[in-house]
Amino acid sequence: MNASPTPTPAPSQPAAPAAPLTVDEIVEQEHRLTLRRFSNEDAWALGSMLVEMGHLRHAPVAIDIRRGTQQLFHASLSGSSADNDAWIDRKRRVVERYSESSYLVGARFRAKGTTFEDSSRLDPDEYAAHGGSFPIRVEGVGVVGTVTVSGLPQAEDHAMVVEALDRFIAT
């Protein structure tokens, strides 16, 4: 017998805050969300999916997708600002440097009892290990780019990207 599904909050209502993800849980997400390929068309499809999710949730986010240094997709939804673009750049640089999500990098430092800002020796004006930037990893190739969301609390930025990648892989 199937259990009744748990009701989900209305799109305009934020979900109740979940417990922070562990390092192992984030590592599992990264392994699971490896793509078979990644083209310009894929960037458009993934970005459009994130825009639709943002609109449905009334999320004031900016979205950025890159392959290498080339920006393939960018959108700024209502309520976002130039500050979100600066956060995108800082979070993206963490992914480019560590080849791991910005949320995972921050979680690794927290698990050691410190912070990225205190222990990384990187300029906090250039790098931010806050959730929302995720590596685009292709099977047999490795990290080829980034997908980044900025405008929500860091765990929600991260969760939005993970949800979109899950959906994208399922299509």
The spatial strand order of the largest sheet comes to 2-1-4-3
Cα-to-Cα separation, first versus last residue: 28 Å
Query: How large, in whole angstroms, is the Cα Rg?
Result: 16 Å
Percentage beta strand: 15-25%
Number of DSSP strand runs: 4
H/E element sequence: HHEEHHHEEH
Mean pLDDT: 91
Keywords for this entry:
single chain, 171 residues, alpha+beta, Beta-Lactamase, 4-stranded antiparallel beta sheet, 6 helices, 4 strands, globular, disordered N terminus
Topology overview:
Blueprint: H1 23-32, H2 40-57, E1 62-67, E2 70-76, H3 82-98, H4 102-111, H5 116-119, E3 133-138, E4 142-150, H6 154-170
Antiparallel strand pairs: 1-2, 1-4, 3-4
Helix pairs in contact: 2-6
Describe the protein:
The chain is of the alpha+beta class. The chain has one domain: Haem-degrading domain (Beta-Lactamase). It has six helices and four strands. It has a four-stranded antiparallel β-sheet with strand order 2-1-4-3. A hairpin with a 3-residue loop joins strand 3 (133-138) and strand 4. Helix 2 (40-57) crosses helix 6 (154-170). It starts with 22 loop residues before the first helix and ends with a helix. Residues 1-16 have low confidence and may be disordered.
